[in-house]
Write a structure and sequence with these properties.
Layout (H helix, E strand, L loop, with lengths): L1 H8 L1 E5 L3 E7 L10 E4 L1 E5 L4 E7 L3 E4 L3 E4 L5 E4 L2 E6 L4 H8 L4 H21 L4 H6 L1 H16 L3 E7 L3 E2 L1 H21 L1
Antiparallel strand pairs: 1-4, 2-3, 2-5, 6-9, 7-8, 8-11, 9-10
């Protein structure tokens, strides 16, 4: 009976290389906040009173689906962002306590997508559409810098690419303008 109860209440998990582990007490300690402690390698825990969170701390790639945002003046543009990110080693406990993330999917969903959408809406609205399409490198660098500022000290971004392009209506207007310029040049010749 003692062996059966011991086997049901104690487990072992392995924190693999590239991950940081965090043992979280499920019963609150100081004013209801969780008690956490870092763990590495083979880690014993009791699933009734403890949870083990594993967070990958090496570079990962993030691609988001296409998002339509407004440039200054109300013109819609489509953004298809992608970037590399890395969870800062040693910040897993703060990350858990601040954001409540328990795995990499929650980091991408809770932190990165939310911060990305907010930053895109805030910064895209400060660029006129011509400036946005003609200065993509500056636009990309400003978004990367703002996201790094918002996500510090938990996550660091690198190699941000916005993939910004005009929406269908604006692309048609640009194509019509180019065609009319070519017709005018042909008529002049």
């Amino acid at each position: 009976m003692a062996i059966l109860s011991l086997s049901l209440t104690s487990c072992m998990t392995r924190i693999n290389p590239g991950y940081e582990g965090l043992k979280v007490a499920l019963a609150g300690g100081d004013k209801g906040s969780a008690k956490t402690e870092p763990c590495y390698g083979w880690t014993p825990y009791n699933p009734l009173t403890t949870m083990v969170v594993k967070v990958y701390v090496r570079n990962q790639h993030f691609i988001n689906e296409e998002i339509t945002v407004q440039a200054k003046g109300g013109t819609n543009v489509e953004v298809h962002p992608s970037f590399n990110y890395r969870v800062t080693p040693g910040k897993t406990d703060s990350l858990y306590l601040m954001w409540g993330v328990t795995d990499d999917q929650q980091i991408q969903g809770k932190m990165l997508e939310t911060t990305l959408l907010t930053t895109l809406r805030e910064l895209t609205n400060t660029y006129p559409v011509d400036s946005l399409l003609n200065n993509r490198a500056t636009y990309d660098m400003s978004i990367e810098a703002e996201m790094n500022r918002k996500l510090a000290p938990y996550v660091t971004l690198s190699q941000f690419t916005s993939g910004v392009k005009p929406d269908k209506a604006l692309a048609d207007v640009i194509a019509d303008k180019s065609a009319s310029i070519q017709r005018a040049i042909a008529a002049e010749n």
